[in-house]
Amino acid sequence: MMHEVYMRRCLELAQKGKGNVSPNPMVGAVLVHNGHIIGEGWHREYGQAHAEVNCIDSVAVEDKHLIPDCTMYVSLEPCAHHGKTPPCANRLVQEKIKHVVICNTDPYEKVGGRGIQILTENNIQTTVDVLEQQGRWLNRRFFCTQENKRPYIILKWAQSANGIFAPYGNKRHQISNAFSNQSVHKWRTEEDAIMVGTNTALADNPQLTARLWQGKNPLRIVIDRSLILPHNLHLFDRKVNTWIVNDKKDEMCNNLNYLHFDFDESMLDNLMNKLYEANIQSVIIEGGAKLLNNFIAKGLWDEARVFTSDKAIAHGLAAPILTEATAAFETYLGKDKFQLFVNNNSEYQYAGGMEL
Ligand SMILES: NC(=O)c1ccc[n+]([C@@H]2O[C@H](COP(=O)([O-])OP(=O)(O)OC[C@H]3O[C@@H](n4cnc5c(N)ncnc54)[C@H](OP(=O)(O)O)[C@@H]3O)[C@@H](O)[C@H]2O)c1
Fold it and tell me: What's this model's pTM, rounded to 2 decimal places?
């Protein structure tokens, strides 16, 4: 029970790295001595120190002598390889920590059990799988990339009270309110990539940036099979790296990357594979209906975030309908209803915690 209390704190700390650590996982750690937390740390930024090291370094000078008598709680198996930083497992051995409690083992092939092996070989007691499901949900983007060799896929859309996605006529029409819109911008800072279909690019001229929140902009991806989109659209403003998926050419033009794909049944799978190769851990699909429906029809999605407004639209394009989905979380932003759905076949099931 106490293990869970401290592990919950690790998961809380880990979340502080959201949006800054990809393609690494979010990790938090605490050092506990006789029921008192004497150190806390988390992985703050990709390429920088890991949670365990930040945790040990946070211990006050007068408490340093207590470290060998501590239990370390950490939300992911300590690493065992020389990457951008030295192996954390070795540091724990050096510090002579007596017990390490771990939430998730690391699926990354260079770690995969070796971190734990180093600890046990050095007589450090290990306990694993504490709040395992919560840890997998928190790091679902990382686990999905490691285990399925594709990014974690989030579908997102807004619909009217009567299930309409957009009025006919391919014109921009704001369905959700300002609160929902701001949440969407926050989410954009948390994902590595964002994608829209051709008609949405034309109708909405979206920027797909995170202007209403502080953080990084995701890679933009637009489908433009026959290269018909005019270059005065925001998507071509070169402010953000942008992939233009087409069947005409492969060409890099500053930060506009034209990528040639065969537009057959496997196009979306091949695109996801290309994203995986580019170290992209997550992609949020922001419409339109055709593109979303294509992902749904293939079962190629992990979670869906849906806003439903309190206003009806008389006629228009029907909103996508999810199949094999479980409603996991629901709340209101003003009068907009927000619902989170999880794909029943996804290996990453909701385990609490949804920040809007
Ligand atoms: N309510 C919302 O949350 C929301 C969000 C975004 C957009 N919208 C609205 O939705 C409308 C546009 O939606 P839409 O369904 O017409 O179009 P869309 O999904 O944005 O674009 C569909 C087009 O993309 C191209 N495409 C190529 N490969 C595709 C693939 N594998 N899957 C899907 N599309 C592919 C096709 O064009 P070609 O046949 O020319 O190749 C297809 O007609 C607009 O009115 C926009 O304002 C609403």
Answer: 0.94
